[in-house]
Design goal:
This protein is an alpha/beta fold. Helices cover 38% and strands 23% of the residues. The longest helix is centred in the C-terminal third of the chain and has 17 residues, at 165-181. InterPro entries: ITPase-like_fam, RdgB/HAM1.
Length: 182
């Protein structure tokens, strides 16, 4: 079975292949991303569109970061937000409000042409006073998962994967695929 993962991010591809345990076909389709506060709806919309391009089993994942000091904003708009505002300014906002609570959520949607299966996971954490670390990608330098003193960007890959929400969703996908192929 060929399984498409829609991403242009080589880090995401490497982590997904490590967790699922198979070689994936990486497709960097230019998908329309609907604007919605519900990361699950965004992922489901994207996977339907991706199926129309791949015509084979396909999955996508989308992430959201909810800052308590901004009443849950930016949510699914995280990539756009940190690219425009910068990670440094995001930390300054949390410092200004003296509220560093943050939650991350991943929604992974899989579509085989018949049924969409969506897997989600959330993790609570805090933001540091300023970005820390030089590993990882995206907003990894501003997320300290609950139970850790390090940001994702300060962790090695194995430690980071233990805390990542997309690890949980990828494991759920892996288990689902095993169950339907038995």
């Amino acid at each position: 079975m060929s399984l498409h993962f829609v991403t242009g991010n080589k880090n995401k591809l490497r982590e997904a292949e490590k967790i699922i345990g198979i070689s994936l076909v990486s497709s960097d389709f230019n998908l329309i991303e609907i604007q919605d506060r519900d990361v699950k709806k965004i992922a489901e919309h994207k996977v339907r569109e991706a199926w129309g391009m791949a015509h084979e089993p396909v999955f996508v994942w989308d992430q959201a970061v909810y800052m308590d000091c901004l009443n849950g904003f930016p949510g699914p708009l995280i990539k756009w937000f940190w690219e425009q505002v910068t990670l440094e300014k995001m930390c300054q906002i949390a410092n200004y409000f003296d509220n560093h609570a943050i939650t991350t959520e991943t929604a992974l949607a899989y579509f085989d042409g018949k049924e969409i299966k969506t897997f989600t996971a959330r993790r609570e954490g805090t933001m540091p006073q300023a970005p820390r670390g030089d590993k990882g990608w995206g907003w990894d330098a501003i997320f300290i998962p609950a139970g850790s003193a390090k940001t994702y960007a300060e962790m090695d890959e194995d430690e980071m994967l233990q805390h990542r929400t997309h690890r949980v969703t990828l494991e759920k996908l892996r288990d689902y695929l095993k169950a339907i192929t038995l």
